[in-house]
Amino acid sequence: MELTVENYINNVRAEHAYHELKHSKNNLTQIAINNGFSNIRTMNRAFDKLYDESASKIKKKRSKYGNLRQLMIKIDIFIIMKTESLRGIDYERTRYFRSC
User: Fold this and answer.
1) Which of 25-29, 38-42, 81-85, 95-99 has the lowest mean pLDDT?
2) How far is CA 70 from CA 11, 23, 67, 100, in A?
3) What is the per-residue DSSP string for the chain?
4) CA dihedral in degrees (24, 28, 31, 35; nearest 10)?
5) Residues near 34 by Cβ (< 8 Å), separated by ≥ 6?
6) How confident is the model at residue 10 (pLDDT cuts 50, 70, 90)?
7) Which of 22, 37, 42, 46 could staple 32 via S-S, CB 3.0–4.6 A?
8) Burial class of 43 by CB neighbour count within 10 A (0 to 12, 13 to 18, 19+)
9) CB atoms within 10 A of CB 38
10) Could you tell me the CA-to-CA distances from 90 to 44, 47, 54, 82 in Å, in that order?
């Protein structure tokens, strides 16, 4: 594998941290600690070696696409509500969609 034990462990930690960045709303410090890094700087070094990007840049990308996904869900809900209102389905049945 041509990796030292330390590099291998940091790579595994970085992969787990990457997954957490993509799927949780924890801040970077909490993600670093959750995945065995002593601080953000150590995590960023591991990310730079493995992904050629810092953790904060990856998190910003997630936020950007996460907001896009939320917007698409809202558009889908709007379309469903308009379609149901055109079909004469009453407001009480569509109220569920407004709470999403």
Assistant:
1) 95-99
2) 31, 14, 5, 10
3) ----HHHHHHHHHHHHHHHHHHH----HHHHHHHTT-SSHHHHHHHHHHHHSS-HHHHHHHHHHHHHHHHHHHHHHHHHHHHHHHHTT--HHHHHHHHT-
4) 140
5) 17, 20, 26
6) confident
7) 37
8) buried
9) 9
10) 53, 52, 50, 11
> What's the pLDDT score for residue 36?
92
Q: Nearest to residue 32, comparing CAs of 70, 75, 24?
A: 24
